[in-house]
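quick one: coenzyme A bound model?
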Amino acid sequence: MTAFGKSPERTARELFAEAAGKAYDDAGLSPGAVEEVFYGNFMGQHAEQQGHSGPLAADSAGVTAPATRIESACASSGAAVRLGVERVRNGAADCVLVGGAERMTNLSTAEGTAGLASAADALWETKAGVTFPGAYSLMANRYFHEHGGGREDLAAIAVKNHRHATENPLAQFQREITVEDVLTAPTVCSPFGLYDCSPMSDGGSAALLVSEEFAEERGLDPEVAVTGTGQGGDRMALHDRVSMTRTPAAERAAAAAYDDAGVGPDDIDIAEVHDCFTVAEVLALEALGFYETGEAISAAADGETDIEGDRPVNLSGGLKAKGHPVGATGGAQVSEMTKLLRGDHVNSDAVSDAEVGLTHNAGGTVASCVVNVLEVVA
Ligand code: COA
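yep, here:
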């Protein structure tokens, strides 16, 4: 992945080209090896007036192979990874370039917010004034109402994820914050203050997915494999859901990915989850089966998801501190997880026994979700 942050002058294609270049170097492969490209991008038409960005992104990465843009809001590149895995598994390709990019900070916050809001139901939600901080704040308030907990519990998530990012050179924010900072920050949409929100970010991510045979033939030594992948869906609009505090799309994605990998929630050593807002981390931990419904709210405050805890979550800093260039996020989770598992991430030493990792990448208010399971190759 590229460094995430503010680089408003760089186009999405430049960001993806940089990420792809890093992936080629990492794998020891050249663009000529790529047989297909899946590129995640959500708001290029809004931010750059650029459609048809699959072949454009591929071109920027030196590839003329078939290329398709995958759009599933903030889960775009998670879905791109999943499609790449499926192509390799079903024998259609031996080497697939996946990932994504997003350019957001060339827009004002208001313009970016309007662009992001198009991931909600335009007729019933967006027209009523719902933005993403707004939608997730409804979910947070409902969670407090049903299960208890409060702003301090959510603040502990932001503090943890900022702390995890302090040494991550690719993270947008590499500084610690305190619970006091979170609680006294300007309100974005009650109960969220500034630090409950992921930021607007620019960035790209890329990965080369190869078959075992291809790796053997080329003498590659991939230390990590994707052993399970799953995608789930749900009613699109929040008001159509049975519950505002459960995310069945994530439950379904996790069930499929666990089944595919032959593992369960207790086998997961570390996870990168989609904390676009602090409450989203709580909902993710419950949907993934790490906690019962209504019980994950205190996980960060109790230190359980901390780097030193029983099951560290978002060691990259998560979307909160690493940044959230939406089309790049799912691919970035896979990039960070790969480094964490193979031992070359700044936070790897703290989890040197970790062998199984999970990424959870959600679209909208989790109307779509992709879960991938990654494992150290024995
Ligand atoms: N966390 C921490 N710091 C943040 C931040 C965040 N989420 N967002 C902005 N900042 C910092 C900036 O770095 C800047 O600091 P500086 O003055 O030291 O440079 C300062 O806060 C002001 O930044 P600015 O971009 O002007 O803030 P803003 O008020 O216009 O926007 C939010 C802040 C939270 C409203 C905006 O980041 C946002 O809408 N985030 C949500 C994005 C989203 O919905 N994503 C999709 C999820 S589904």
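Residues 115 and 164 are 29 Å apart (CA to CA).
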